[in-house]
Amino acid sequence: MIKDLLADGEDRMQKSIEFFRKDLASIRAGRANPAILDKIIVDYYGAPTPLSQLGNISAPEPRLLTIAPWDRSALGAIEKAIQKSDLGLNPNSDGVIIRLAIPQLTEERRAQLAKTTKKKGEDCKVSIRNIRRDVADKIKLEEKAKNCSEDEAKKANDELQKATDKYSSEVDKILEVKEKEIMEV
Question: Is the pTM of this model over 0.90?
């Protein structure tokens, strides 16, 4: 039972890290990355549809993204959705393809993005610590119900703390890489 609790806790911590990585991919650093468009939802024939499901998104140049919609009638809706987003990008359409020029980031914007990145990292660490607390509480309940000995509970809590430390340091490493990417001119 204790092993199941620890395995579940580690699995949830790993999912927090995966979500954090995906979340960071949507923050635009200096170069064009199709992942920055992942959160854009387009009103396609009255149904909210993710932009990635409406066409092919590619980065042919370091500062350019192109969107080739499979249905040309969706061009206007895609342009509107991009303009409404908080990305600050202006779509240029030639009737077939939408081009998004990625402007150079200012020093102020880089600092702001770095701060946002740190906040997301701290949120991920809080999530990991909450998972640790949940699992530790379940271990205490197992101990009270006499399903495990005091020694087993202590050993399980030690393993849980090691896993928490491991995933927290992984968050720090991911943050360090993303910060370098953001501050790179």
Answer: no
